[in-house]
Specification:
four-stranded mixed β-sheet, 4 strands, 232 residues, alpha/beta, single chain
Amino acid sequence: MTGDLPEDKLKPLATFVQKHFTTTLKALKFEATENPPKGKLAVYFFPERKKYKYFVGELLNERVDNDERSHSDARAAEPYVAISVVAGEKPTDLDTEAATQIAAGLLACKAGPAMLPGWMKDGFARAMSWRLDAAAGAKDRAQIRRLVLAPKGKKAADIWTAPLDADKKLLGASLMEYFVFGPDSAKFSKILNNFRPTDEVPNPTIANALQAVEITPDNLDKAWKKWVTTGK
């Protein structure tokens, strides 16, 4: 890991990033026959926007959007994550952005050519953050229980129904945590695989992925709600 930060700030960032990488790598249960990262993941911190734009635009030959805060490719021959700030902002949460991109990148490696929806990628990153921040995890899970146990409580199928608001993003993280760590975790790899386009299904959805592993929306809803309320 490298960056234009003083050593006293860069060192704790490196420790945080390494913990997140290790935790996420373990959670995804990479096997030799799957798609693990091809090398060590390099993480670059650019608190100066100018240097970030040079790195992404000139060295990687990629477009840089004005509101872009990060750029990553965990499936490259030399996998990397580059983190910056939007012009005018201060670098206050570089660690959180790095953790999010690391989780999303490793999930992309696991999924291979699968076309995962945004709620799954964002939800997985948030769920992994709960594993290292118990207080944040407890607070979010309490809110999730309130949403699920309300008189007209949310269902799993509500998560992937537009529009994707703040509540649905939170519930999506809970469902991804269930997929990775819950009683159906052995099916997670197959669920990801079933998001890969085929001639028969060029744009697979979560419904296609669940059907392929013989999980009905009703059964998923029951199992997930049990997980939310009991943790098992």
